[in-house]
Amino acid sequence: MGRCSNSSLVALAIISLAGCSNTPKQDARVETRQPSPRASTPDAQPVATGVVQESESQKFGRLIKGVDGRSVYFAYDDFTIKHDHHQVVAAHAGVLSKAGKGAVVLEGNADERGSREYNLALGQKRAAAVADGLRALGIPADKIEAISFGKEKPRAVCHEEKCWAENRRVDFTYKLK
What we know:
Blueprint: H1 3-18, H2 56-65, E1 72-73, H3 86-98, E2 102-109, H4 116-136, E3 144-150, H5 161-167, E4 169-176
Parallel strand pairs: 2-3
Antiparallel strand pairs: 1-4, 2-4
């Protein structure tokens, strides 16, 4: 074989190896089709753009914001819900009825007068009275917990009626189950 034949064979080998490269060549004539925005499958769900889904805890936080800090107050040595506090209980019942997995802890409190044991019992009776009110408005018992702090968690600290009246209350503490 001559010199010309060897170079022709080498050139032919290079050309054939180039055709075997691993990268696929794209044909300019190949079209890629996007599905039509109107095309749908039987199980396709419409997608709302720009709508953010509210989480359970966000919804719960939004609901309790309207009743945050609204307590039920009681007369001295009493655990009967006053008529003007029925709307507070109803507002909290409204939150609980919309809250899904939301629950409430009712914290009964008393003023500083009386023994520790007496005030714990009175705080428990106050919390139980509010729990009864919520159940009467359709709130399931498993969403309600009633506890007493007695005189251990005063909201106001002075030794006169204006502070005592502030401390005779049931507070609402919400939680997600």
